[in-house]
Amino acid sequence: MVGRERHKPYERPPLSKAVLVAAEEPRLDVLPQEVWALGDIDLLNGSDAVDLDVSKRQIRLASGQVLAYDMCLLATGGEPNALASAPAGHPHVHYMRTLEDARRLRV
């Protein structure tokens, strides 16, 4: 599993509920590490997939590394919709999508 974020896949709903206000950051993992290992699933966190060659069943990462795959599920993710009246980057406007976003906003 290739993902841009540096973290293992995690539950996003708690970002705005538990992460922002909890005394300690809660565990957000979708699955325990053992499950990934039992399923023979490699996690390549902090990696961008930049090219997909369906005929060769290969994915090229931004690093240049080429990975072969048996099956590919392409999930491109999403970004928050920025309001024209509240642009991202404004010092008083914060959009939250990732664990890093929640950590920056944490009280």
Automatic annotation (TrEMBL):
InterPro entries referenced in this protein's UniProt entry, alphabetically: FAD-oxidoreductase/Apoptosis, FAD/NAD-bd_sf, FAD/NAD-binding_dom
Pfam families: Pyr_redox_2
Cofactor(s) listed in the protein's UniProt record: FAD
Statement: the UniProt record of this protein carries the keyword DNA repair: no
GO molecular function: oxidoreductase activity
Domain FAD/NAD(P)-binding: from-to ranges: 1-106
Keywords assigned: FAD, Flavoprotein, Oxidoreductase
PANTHER family tied to this protein: APOPTOSIS-INDUCING FACTOR 1, RIESKE DOMAIN-CONTAINING PROTEIN-RELATED
Designated name of the protein: FAD/NAD(P)-binding domain-containing protein
Species whose genome carries this gene: Ricinus communis (Castor bean)
